[in-house]
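Box 3.1. Reading complex inputs
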Amino acid sequence: MNKISLIIKREYLTRVKKKSFLIMSIVGPMLFALMIILPTWFASMDDTSEKKIAVIDAVGKYDKKIENTEYLRFEWLEQGKKDDFSKEYKEQGYAAYVIIEKDLLEYPDAVAIYSDIQVTADVKGHVSRSLKRYLETEKLNSYQISGLDGIIKEIHDVKVNVKTIKLSDDGTEKESSTEITMIGAIIFALMVYMFVIMYGTQVMRGVMEEKTNRIVEVIISSVKPFQLMMGKIIGIAMVALTQFLIWVVLSFGVAFLISSIFLGGEMPESNQIQMAQSINAEMDQTQTSEFADSLAKVFEKIDLVTVVSSLFAFIYLFIGGYLLYASLFAAIGSAVDSETDSQQFVLPVMMPLILSMYVVMGVFQNPGSDLAFWFSMIPFTSPVVMMARIPFQPPVWEIVLSMVILTGTFIFTTWVAGRIYRTGILMYGKKVSYSELWKWFKYSGK
Amino acid sequence: MIFLEAKQVVKQFAAHLALDHVDIQVPEGSIYGLLGPNGAGKTTLIRIINQITGPDSGEILLNGKALKPEDVQRIGYLPEERGLYKKMKVGEQAVYLARLKGLSRNDAIKKLKYWFEKFEIQAWWDKKVEELSKGMQQKIQFVVTVLHDPQLLIFDEPFSGFDPINANILKQEILAQKEKGATILFSTHNMGSVEELCDHITLINKSKTILTGEVDDIRQKYKDNLIKLDYMGETDILSRHLESDYTIQSIEPDHRLNTAMIQMPEGGSVNKMINQLVDHVEIHGLQEVLPTMNDIFIKVVEQSNLTKSVIKES
């Protein structure tokens, strides 16, 4: 037991001391923090300056029929200015101009927006919506039904605003955000996927390193091959968990830092001012407060209990999935002599992992579907697929069953891998096939 | 006193029988050579003794008791396929390997200091292994093998890949370990080193023991009654005075001295030969020629292959 801890320690320390580990530890959470913050920032930043858009109405029916918005102001020009307007509109301070040439009821495509920059979908949508609504009213009016004005007004006032409310067991309600749940799910699923591949292949490379360096026989004259394999797998798992914890802590740290700057949380005075100043230099006051508002909404909707239980599920599913795949990768590493030889074995092992990412996409559509259920039970896909389902809070028995199956499977694969490993690490210069692996497996026993 | 004993060890790999009822008995404090052509089963036997693999049947006794897992700490093993972690620092790595053999950290460092000073390689402690030459790495590997003062040392092809200087250092160190009381088992193709170092040998060919015993006995047993004689006189003087059943194989003339190789007949002796010559020839030197281990190796292996193929054909 003492020896396996020595191996774990070596595997752990040599990796944690590497520069690449340090870089990943710092860059990772920054990326995650950015993933949370950037979309809200962008949303609050887009087109806050007011734009003027000229409208040239050749028909004369559409005066003031396009409503102004917060950021868009439409000005109706006299009809004659059309010909050379493409040269003038900028000088007159317009960002773009709209020309309506014919009666739109008869010629629906007789309207166009001109600008030297690509007109955003927002602007286009707004113009077409406004005109459409006006035309609908127009059309209805043409039937000359009495009292129509009132009806039209009522129709326009009809509004639907679907909220998603998550019910907890004790009946309390909390407004949730489907979008945030989905983002959480995909981040967690991606993390499991990434971690399993990253650290699983590290196990493979580690085993191959020992084999090609020819140190393996020296070591297994001191410890059992299985101890060496497990020591490596556990050591690298601890590296992964360390990395993950650093990421969680730093991500929350960065998110907290930013939120406290914008939301006025408790922060050391000097730091806050300094940070706030540097950021304020780049944005004006209104932007800041809007950004803060939307950020506040994001934080409000994140349910702490869900986050914590997701973290636990993540750690369990990651470790389970990792052990399952790492043992297979260890077996591959022991069997081959070089990275190129490993390809034929790596691909079949990776397949279910890659497949599981595709399944995850389907899970978003319907987290309770049969597809989602079965793939979260199959142990080769369950770590990723179940992780994607967790934020949608599937029944507890499903989670437990999935974890039990996963546990049983990794014990089995570790046993299989151990038998291949002990023969494989001492085989040099042999072209390995699946039947060869099977022979090693059957044979090893003693 | 037998320190290590293998009894009727059998090991079968899929379709290939690697060891077929092999016995060896290694006396305590001796140097024991395990010889045989490539693929004979030497490495398999060594791996079984190191408990890297297990025998299908038969047993290994260490000091009269069946081998236990803890016994790995009493054994130092330098495999044929040997290497080090390239990215790890020399000192750190040596300490790690020593601790896997059960030394405490402090003991490991203390002993390593001694060996590093002895080989004058203290400066390497903080270097990465990949910065060292192959010869340097071999030194480290040797140090790590003997560091925990094992009672049994096993070297698999220790001289392969060594330059003559390092090979010589290794030889001296192996002898020094013997002086300290260690029992040493090594496999080799290097027959010169067998004559220099080994007290006993076992020759394995095609999974079977075909020759075993003390090196001196074996050489006596396989000698051809060949005498090397240095004398002064005419080249044909010998043939004139020697009895006809003493055949002269060759005479190499020199300015002053001739060297002749003389095959004595069955029942002949050196004394009888001298009596025939002493009045006629000025003898300067006379030596019985023992076969080299190399000759014996080739002879015995070829014989055994021959008998096997004869059996197969019949």
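In summary: The radius of gyration of chain B is 24 Å.
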